[in-house]
Amino acid sequence: KAGVTQTPRYLIKTRGQQVTLSCSPISGHRSVSWYQQTPGQGLQFLFEYFSETQRNKGNFPGRFSGRQFSNSRSEMNVSTLELGDSALYLCASSPGNAGEQYFGPGTRLTVT
Amino acid sequence: AQSVTQLDSQVPVFEEAPVELRCNYSSSVSVYLFWYVQYPNQGLQLLLKYLSGSTLVKGINGFEAEFNKSQTSFHLRKPSVHISDTAEYFCAVSPFSGGYNKLIFGAGTRLAVHP
Asked: Residue A43 and residue B98: Cβ atoms within 8 Å?
């Protein structure tokens, strides 16, 4: 089975712009979660989607949003980018509800 | 709420020596427990998981971990490490309740294996 794929792998944006990141889960996985990884804050949960519905959300401002499509692919969007949004954004998919998640390689976002 | 503490930020060790990476957690509800490994410029790879049953869990690459409920610990061990084990290791928990997939991670332990 193919693993979790994320596009693009690297992205450079300017403050104030917006960005959309994409994630394709492992075939058959209906749950997709997003995480932000930074040197200062570590790995932090952003949100989880299951069957096109957001069912869990972390403590991030409303500038961070996401959606899931009927084929389970997911996108996350960050509007009005700030320098502090520079991070590795990881997507993970899961076959069930036991927290076991499989991660993609991540998208490294740099905001200048 | 849940929290995870990884007691060592860095662990240096010589090749073929044993290693233990320590993890303690705090939670008001029952949790599932995980260890993930991250190699440079890569995502996270699941090493092992504790969902229920035997408290000694075996994972990939010769790693194992033991769940200790009374001490709320889930330490990771390997009897003999290789240079290729150099990476960052993350302990994580996920609460039972809600049926949701949300991982709470520790800050990570950087394992450096020296020849």
From this structure: no
